[in-house]
User: Fold this.
Amino acid sequence: MGTVTDMAVDELDTRILRLLIEQPRTSVREYARLLGIARGTLQARLDRLERTGVITGTGPFLSPAALGHPVLAFVHIEVTQGYLDEVGDALAAVPEIIEAFSITGGGDLLTRVAARDNAHLEDVIQQLIRLPGVVRTRTEVALRERVPHRVLPLVEAVGRAARKP
Assistant:
């Protein structure tokens, strides 16, 4: 699969991506009408954006809090050398882990954990500590979301940069 660096996102791509983000339940025909372009042109652009990895999915964004898991924590996991892949694979079996990344700096893995309450968070952390290859964990509980997950400002910045001579 391609990467974002394989292609330039131009002004039309930026307009398309903005519409997809702002009006995700609209039809391709309606997007084409709103953009003032042919449906075939839009479909070709969408296909290219998917093929190159700019568009990675279309599903709904779900709220862990609305699913009864309002506690959000970031758990740093230090791993014994040589066990990074095994621990990473084991994390996929823990449903409360909603994201995990290998990182530089303090710790080897950074996970985002959703929990029902603090006691449940402690249970999840204890489960992580018992995984073979985990040396220790460090947990930071999120108090309030300050900037929700977003990509549109980045899309717009890339589009502006593509327009510059």
